[in-house]
Each structure stands twice: as structure tokens, then as C-alpha cells.
Amino acid sequence: MTDVGQRPSDLPATYCSDVDGVRYIVIDPTAGDMSGWIIETTDGDGRVSRSAFTREATWYETQDGDWNGLGYGTPKNPWAALVDRGMQITNWIRPVGAP
């Protein structure tokens, strides 16, 4: 069984857009292992989508620790999941056995 709920309060997250304007939620890999985690989002019409966290995309971390997809800062591969414009995160789904 999976655990569905809100983002853990000790897990910092940042919304970022890539160069094409697609929006993601980005988690620094030093903040936690997001393997198997999924976010559930809902749009204004009640349509539900799910997106798994991956470390496939390159994001950039500034000296201030902020993330962006525009090339400002050091390239890294943090955890990221799609949260398109107009979508609201409704649930964080942790994998079986996750703390």
C-alpha cells in the first residue's frame, strides 16, 4: 500500500520552468531520495494527472541555492516532476516502505 498525503514539511521544493515554459517541481537531491515518489495534480476542471520524480533533466543551481531551467548557475540533476501550468498539487504519493 502507498501512503498518500502532503509534502513532508522538512522537504524543500521549488517550482521551476524549463526553457520551453513547462513547469516542474524540483527537489535538491541532498534533501532526500525521491525514488518511486509520485505527485498527483488536479486542474481547474477536476482532471487528475500523476507525475513521477526523475533525475533525467538538467537544472541549474545558483550560488544562492535557487533552481532554474534557464542555464543560470551550475548544471545538476535534481529530482523533478511535471506540474504543468494551471495544475495544483493535491497529493504526494510515497512508495511502499518509504520513511
Give a concise summary.
The chain is mostly beta strands and 99 residues long.
Binned, the helix content reads under 10%
Radius of gyration equals 13 Å
What's the tally of helices?
0
Question: What is the strand tally?
Answer: 10
Beta-strand content estimate: 35-45%
List keywords for this structure.
globular; 99 residues; 10 strands; mainly beta; four-stranded antiparallel sheet
Produce the secondary structure layout.
Layout: E1 3-5, E2 14-17, E3 23-27, E4 38-42, E5 48-52, E6 59-61, E7 67-68, E8 74-76, E9 79-82, E10 88-94
Antiparallel strand pairs: 1-10, 2-3, 3-9, 4-5, 4-10, 6-7, 6-8
Explain what the structure shows.
The protein has 99 residues and is mainly beta. It has one domain (3-94). The protein contains no helices and ten strands. The chain has strands at 3-5, 14-17, 23-27, 38-42, 48-52, 59-61, 67-68, 74-76, 79-82, 88-94. A four-stranded antiparallel sheet has the order 1-10-4-5, with no helix packed on it. Strands 2-3-9 form a three-stranded antiparallel sheet, with no helix packed on it. Strand 4 and strand 5 form a beta hairpin. The mean pLDDT is 88.
